[in-house]
Amino acid sequence: MPGYVGGSINQAGTKIINGNIANPRRGLPRASGLTLLYDPTTVRIACIMEGAYISSLRTASVSLLATRLCAGRPIECAAIIGAGVLAQRHIELLVQQIPSLVKISLFDLDKQRVANMRTLLTPLLEDSHVVLIEETSAQRAVEGAQLIIPVTTTTTGYIPYAWLQPGAILVNVSLDDPLPDVVLQADKIIVDDWDLIKNDTRRLLGRMYRSGEIIGPDDPHPQGSRARRIDAHLGDVVMRERVGRESDNDIILVNPFGLSIEDIALATYVYQEALRLHLGTPLKR
């Protein structure tokens, strides 16, 4: 995934992620990768860094940003579906950044992964007031939460609108977990980048766009169509050009998308800090 960020960052780079959903059975993370940064003048490689950590941190940071922008009543319970690296990164941020949080409901089809996650997070949880509860089903986890974050590898939806309590925020990180009725009935739908989403032929929102069930935030409404309009880009809400939440009871679906420019921006910051602190390993050309 190549990207270029202009302005004061002025950095081009490429995010490379290699993933295999069978890796957890081998005792390995599902995905790994590299981030390459290029000199903006010569275009030669300036830095090679591990990419999966930055990618997972960026993913969790976007979820947290969207949650803050769409917050209504205080969030006391968050549901995390899936117990991989993305789940770990989300839990770490949520525990540190949402003061009202007291409970995280975690569900994964593989109970051993949940046990491994608990072990990894024990030091963090012991220093907080948040408890981690293993739920027996995705439904139990979702129904009791004000914030729901699926981080799975499924391509088959399973979360119906009926599971979502009034005021819930569903951050659709893994893109295929909600059923279409969530998209059609949510009070607000906020997306990260509509052009990328509508051109994706595999994921839920891209499929619904192709079937004529949804249209973009600024698309003209086809005559006679009853298509559901996407409400806003996340950037519009950040810039206060559109509103994330209008009522405490609004059920909000946030559909982020893996944007390489965000990884490049974050990697550039890490690179600049490494240079300033004289960290890293210089490589001969």
From the structure above, extract its key features.
eight-stranded parallel beta sheet, alpha/beta, 285 residues, 14 strands, four-stranded antiparallel beta sheet, 2,3-diaminopropionate biosynthesis protein SbnB, ODC_N, ODC_Mu_crystall, NAD(P)-bd_dom_sf, Rossmann fold
Please describe the topology of this protein.
Elements: E1 2-5, E2 11-19, E3 31-38, E4 45-50, H1 52-69, E5 77-81, H2 85-97, E6 103-107, H3 111-126, E7 131-134, H4 138-143, E8 147-150, E9 169-171, H5 180-185, E10 188-191, H6 194-198, H7 204-210, E11 214-215, E12 228-229, E13 232-233, H8 234-238, E14 252-255, H9 260-276
Parallel strand pairs: 5-6, 5-8, 6-7, 8-9, 9-14, 10-13, 10-14, 11-12
Antiparallel strand pairs: 1-2, 2-3, 3-4
Helix pairs in contact: 1-2, 2-3
How is this structure best described in words?
The structure is a single chain. This protein is α/β, with parallel strands linked by helices and 285 residues long. It is 33% helix and 22% strand. Helix 3 links the parallel strand 6 and strand 7. Helix 1 packs across helix 2 and helix 2 runs parallel beside helix 3. The mean pLDDT is 94. InterPro entries: NAD(P)-bd_dom_sf (IPR036291), ODC_Mu_crystall (IPR003462), ODC_N (IPR023401). This is 2,3-diaminopropionate biosynthesis protein SbnB.
